[in-house]
Specification:
The structure holds two protein chains of two kinds.
Chain A lengths: L4 E3 L2 E5 L4 E6 L6 E7 L5 E8 L4 E4 L2 E6 L4 E6 L8 E8 L8 E3 L3 E6 L1
Parallel strand pairs in A: 2-11
Antiparallel strand pairs in A: 1-3, 3-8, 4-5, 4-9, 6-7, 7-8, 9-10, 9-11
Chain B lengths: L3 E4 L2 E4 L5 E7 L5 E8 L3 E8 L6 E2 L6 E5 L5 E5 L8 E8 L9 E2 L3 E5 L1
Parallel strand pairs in B: 2-11
Antiparallel strand pairs in B: 1-3, 3-8, 4-5, 4-9, 5-6, 7-8, 9-10, 9-11
The chains are: A mainly beta, B mainly beta.
Chain lengths: 113, 114
């Protein structure tokens, strides 16, 4: 079963605008991660936020985590055409990561030039 | 440093045929995983190996077997392929608990079962 659910399923914005994607999950987590997948490629890790953290930044990425609402958001600022991809949130299992991550269905982001 | 290498990249099978998907990582990771990705379904865990010598079922293990050959290699076998196994298969590895579960993925195997 899917632990994380991304919203929206698809998002199309103009280059230079900010893109926000949301993720909701169902059970307690140790950490939440965001991955990017370019068409026809494997997933690439973007950022990890631990359950005791509320916000984290990495370059143009900003991730927030609200454990009381079981939700996270990924903000990409000043979007570029190269940001066109699918974005997935993933949560860890009871094994603290050793038993894999549970992924959502993803948000497909299109950046219009 | 190649990361995670999967072979083959593409495969077409007929129903009932068998095949093995190969995966190797050169990052000295303890944990390895097999996921499948279907349109609109995200990624689902088939099997994982938390460490060399151990394997465990994930969310969708039926129809598959795995072998953790050594620390580097983790193979996925379809004994009798079915059309429902048409999917894109990803191998991944991680440091496991010590690494917080961050996964490194291969480029995938696109499998079609006719």
């Amino acid at each position: 079963s899917q632990q994380g659910e991304e919203d929206p399923q698809a998002l199309s914005i103009q280059e230079g605008e900010n893109a926000t994607m949301n993720c909701s999950y169902k059970t307690s987590i140790n950490n939440l991660q965001w991955y990017r997948q370019n068409s026809g490629r494997g997933l690439v890790h973007l950022i990890l936020i631990r359950s005791n953290e509320r916000e984290k930044h990495s370059g143009r990425l900003r991730v927030t985590l609200d454990t009381s609402k079981k939700s996270s958001s990924l903000l990409i600022t000043a979007s570029r055409a190269a940001d066109t991809a699918s974005y997935f949130c993933a949560t860890d299992g009871a094994g603290g990561g050793a038993d894999g991550l549970t992924f959502g269905k993803g948000t497909h982001l299109i950046i219009q030039p | 440093n190649a990361g995670v290498t999967q072979t083959p990249k593409f495969q077409v099978l007929k129903t009932g045929q068998s095949m093995t998907l190969q995966c190797a990582q050169d990052m000295n990771h303890n944990s390895m995983y097999w996921y499948r990705q279907d349109p609109g379904m995200g990624l689902r865990l088939i099997y994982y190996s938390a460490s060399e010598g151990t394997t465990d079922k994930g969310e969708v293990p039926n129809g598959y077997n795995v072998s953790r050959l050594n620390k580097r290699e983790f193979s996925l076998r379809l004994e009798s392929a079915a059309p429902s196994q048409t999917s894109v298969y990803f191998c991944a590895s991680s440091e496991g608990r010590t690494g917080g579960g961050k996964l490194f993925f291969g480029s995938g195997t696109q499998l079609s079962v006719l």
